[in-house]
Write a structure and sequence with these properties.
By secondary structure, this protein is an all-alpha fold. 26% of the residues lie in helices and 0% in strands. Among the domains are: 36 residues, no CATH class; 102 residues, no CATH class; 70 residues, no CATH class. 11% of the residues are buried.
Length: 319
Amino acid sequence: MRVTRVVIAAGPLIALALLVWPSSLALPPSVSIAAEPPAKASPPETGNAYVGSETCLQCHDVKDKFNKTIHAKVFTEANARTPLMLRGCEACHGPGKVHADAGGGKGVGDLVAFRRETPEAIERENAVCLTCHEKGKRTYWQGSPHEGRDVACTNCHKVMEKVSDRFQLAKAEVVEVCAQCHLVRRSQIYRNAHMPLREGKMTCTSCHNPHGTITKSLLPENSINDNCYKCHADKRGPFLWEHPPVLESCANCHDPHGGVREKMLKLSLPRLCQQCHIESRHPTEARLPTNKLVIGRACVQCHANIHGSNHPSGFAFTR
């Protein structure tokens, strides 16, 4: 008697019996043996296939420009993050056999052309980009304001040539990319009081994540104030005496995109203060030493610590 080791497809009990089955006897007709798992069926032939970048470059003279981009480095070799671990042109544009056999032509071969012609085309094109770029700061792209307005990745990024030093942008600077649509914000950064975008000390993405967030206005932090505190840490507190409008939002008093008033205030003093504080509570008799300041409505001359105070004088936020 010989003990035979086999892979049995009929269950553990029959497998146990076969281990001691005499080699001279035939197997019971109800038992089937599978030495290897069955091979997977081949995908149906679609008439299209991958032909390689060499075929594409016979007509599309983009090699010199493309080789200067980060994508050229990524697709030089097979990349595990791309569909089917493809490399070259077809990793993003899809199989090109039908297109090449027809001698090219717009729309021939159903290639992903990145022309941004319809919302459906944009969704398909963005899906190609998200095959690799779906994590990190791009986690919330689906459902973001930009995605909902049919913004294509290629509206902001230049894939086929290097225009910017970082991020494969469609313009040389982040501000220029955002200003293609946000024209009002562009004008604000040229006002007297502005964030140092013109000076290159920060960019739009210092305060916003254009790929989406879970907060309002594409802010990367949990609130407007948390966003501001990244630079203005001295205003964070906690203070013994807190100023409620400050706790609520820095944007109650400041326009973060720039303005014509100092410190980017929304209104000139004292009108800004008088949105909440009426002046009738202040004495105005001529004999008071503070008369000029009261009449002149110079609020911050006395109430200097308006962002919050630990001063023993109390909630008046005085010096």
